[in-house]
Amino acid sequence: MSRRPQTPLQFKALALVLGLGLAALCVEIGLRLHFHRLPSLAALDGSGLELPPSDPSLPACANTLEWASTPRVRTLPGALPPLRVWFAGDSTTAAVGVRDEESWWLLLSQALGGGRAVEASNLAVPGADTCAILQQLNRRKAQAPPPDLVLVGVFADDLNAHLLLSVQARPVLLPQAAPPWLRPLVMRSYAANYLWLGIEPRRESIRERGLDPRALTEFRAATGQMVEWSAEVGARLYFVLMAPSGLRDCPERPRPDHECLRLAQDLDRMAEVLHQDGRAVLDLRPWFRETAVPLLPNDLALVAEGRLEIPLHVAAEGQAPLASEVLRLIREQPGPAGQDSPR
């Protein structure tokens, strides 16, 4: 009985490689047909957010890639000329989950007007850090008449380098922020990007997120450019220290990796820098600690699912008290350039 000739090992290995390559190609084609863009950026679809190249005219933010969106502009009737108020920041400044008519920024604008017409522009976008805020202001400066008053919302995570962001409770991973050895692969291959999207959020959620050593330097440089920018256009500028809406319910002694502790430490660092540099600061931390702030239902659901450790945003019922507190703080201090605050 004759034996069948055996296939050489190298041909088996070649067949295996070709089979795996063909399977990978099929997966790549399927993902490209399913997704309109890289899977790690798919949550941006329909959100109104994009990732434009960095603005080369902003040296403090030369190496960042940030959000861009269309400003929300609301005009309130009254005597002319209008008071122009700009708000810049992240989702807490944007009052996500709340209608504009109920938002703290529009209610505050109405109170600041005092019968005068008001043009309120909210430039805030979710996930924005200090560099993104500076870019928001720079873009708006080229598009609209200069403001009379600018309020920059500074939130607790602005010192952290953002690799993982959340848009409409879905993760967004920025391929440009991936490690250099991995970046070319996740920027070009949908299959590699999809695999990275499945792994990285879990790694991000279990590891301690340390402070980027460049963060305070960039924060100081970016806020300094904001001050120069406001002086150039003749606007009063206030930095508003925004705290998480659930700050009051944080444990007295949180564990070292708890979100409450990390956010509180970041806020303390930013407040110290702003005060050292003589900036005009509206500190909302005492109000958030002492007030039973109504919490956004979506945040409560995310906490229940274990996707957030602490609620971040204020519900509609808390927007008017928040606006009143900001107005009180504005009226308690003079403007940055020695001008009287808006009454």
Name some characteristics of this structure:
343 residues, single chain, two-stranded antiparallel sheet, alpha/beta, Rossmann fold, 2 domains, disordered C terminus, 11 helices, 13% strand, elongated
CATH class of the largest domain: Alpha Beta
Task: Please write the string of helix (H) and strand (E) elements.
Answer: HEEHHEHEEEHHHEHEHHH
The main pleated sheet reads as:
6 strands, mixed
**In CATH terms, what is the architecture of the largest domain?**
3-Layer(aba) Sandwich
* Number of DSSP E strands: 8
This entry's quaternary arrangement is single chain
Radius of gyration: 24 Å
Low-confidence sequence ranges: 205-211, 336-341
- Give me the CATH superfamily of the largest domain: SGNH hydrolase
Structural class per helix/strand content? alpha/beta
**Within the largest sheet, what's the order of strands?**
1-3-2-4-7-8
Q: How many separate helices?
A: 11
How far apart the termini lie comes to 105 Å
Helix content: 40-55%
Give me the CATH fold name of the largest domain: Rossmann fold
Give the overall pLDDT as a whole number.
Answer: 81
Large-scale geometry: elongated
Structurally, the number of domains stands at 2
Q: Which band does the percent of strand residues land in? A: 5-15%
